[in-house]
């Protein structure tokens, strides 16, 4: 007999109450593109945003009126709320997208919304180059909101009580609190984002004007590019992504913003405090540096051997940018999707896949397995090897630096390895599903599945407006699992099971 | 905001952005060396 308590009405009310707050945030977010649409006389878009915002705000009002509760938030509640928020959020965000008429069907609108919020950046929109400005802005706003964490964004604004929010913050795959107090952590994240917004957008606007953009267009492209780059999202205003600009200056600034996005907020804090040594000593920095050097080395050898590029400049602008886009989990492209298949040989795309699988740093806006987990797994492997090789009586202690010197504990290593394996399982699910359709080769299937599963967004061309619904559904699942890093999803499943089988509270 | 707090406010931001630029520059130099080696050494 199960000993787990069956959730009662009070638990469900609590979950609904907090989900309502998330929907309020999404509703208010839609007011921004709504105002832009009204100002620019984009009436169809304005109608879509008005309906989308109204639905979300009504849902919040109902939950606030009917479900308000004083019950405390437990760890399991936090996990369930976050897992559901990342499902319900995209569902509500998909409403204005569906109403815009730019998607094949509701599933594709949901794909776009999930891709936006999870900062994946794959797009199935029709005719992106002629999308109304307000709709483009909405897609990019979703990326920055998702990158910073919709829960932390919404709850730090609307909810009181630090301890309660901490539970949700940790559940949202943000396991490292930057500062002791969660509100101060949220404030620091916003301060970093707003500082980089001012500096990054200004630099982009100047670079775009220098390439011939009018000031108005430069501001529009600059703002959207900042959102999608720092959020490591990867959406773009134009179908051709970053190639559209044909400007090394734009690529350089976007590259720096992607780097900033892939850096954990803990390391941002160290930089702000002038502690550059912390960045250099951190296990995560070292892991990312080692893997990026390895993958960039393999990529350049592959590209030069195949004869794709023969100059240092081309290797940097096409190769390094792509690697940075992959390792930061952004997904901005400086190549047409087919290029990876037809001109890059096999070694260079394999290096991109490797970088995509690892992704960026934990507690950043980036996705993927995360450098921290890989570093811990490698440390654990070395630890086990030393234990085998050294005499039985030897005391083997493995340490690493992450904020301070830490001793590697078995449960830490096991947790890292478990999530790493779950990511691999997610990639396999995507690969097998793509292959079942019988039209793709293995390179395409692996490349796209890893890109989606790690919330990257570099596409080899499989994701497009005409993709099969079954594949779109599996990719949506992969994006959701990847963003939550699995744990919250397992807790949700367990919670659903206890609804039917748990012990009734007495 | 007091003058001293304001001074710290801007100093922290400038330092954060400055270090990021340094990090980016270091990565670019390292990648340039790797790319050059590949062009020169790979047959």
Question: Would you mind describing this structure in some detail?
Answer:
The complex is a heterodimer of chains A (506) and B (43). By secondary structure, chain A is mainly alpha-helical. Helices cover 69% and strands 2% of the residues of chain A. Chain A is built from 21 helices and 2 strands. Chain A has helices at 9-39, 43-67, 75-99, 106-117, 133-148, 150-158, 162-171, 182-210, 215-230, 248-262, 265-272, 276-281, 283-306, 312-327, 337-342, 347-358, 371-389, 410-436, 442-453, 469-484, 487-501; strands at residues 399-402, 404-407. Chain A has a two-stranded antiparallel sheet. In chain A, α13 packs antiparallel against α16 (347-358) and α14 packs parallel to α16. Chain A is globular. Chain A starts with 8 loop residues before the first helix and ends in a 5-residue tail after the last helix. The mean pLDDT of chain A is 89. Chain B is mostly helical and 43 residues long. Helix content of chain B is 91%, strand content 0%. Chain B has 1 helix and no strands. Chain B has one helix at 3-41. Chain B is rod-shaped. The termini of chain B are far apart. Chain A binds chain B through residues 191-192, 195-196, 199, 255-256, 259-260, 263, 268, 271-274, 276, 279, 293, 296-297, 300-301, 303-305, 310-312, 315-316, 319-320, and chain B through 12-13, 15-17, 19-24, 27-28, 30-32, 34-39, 42-43.
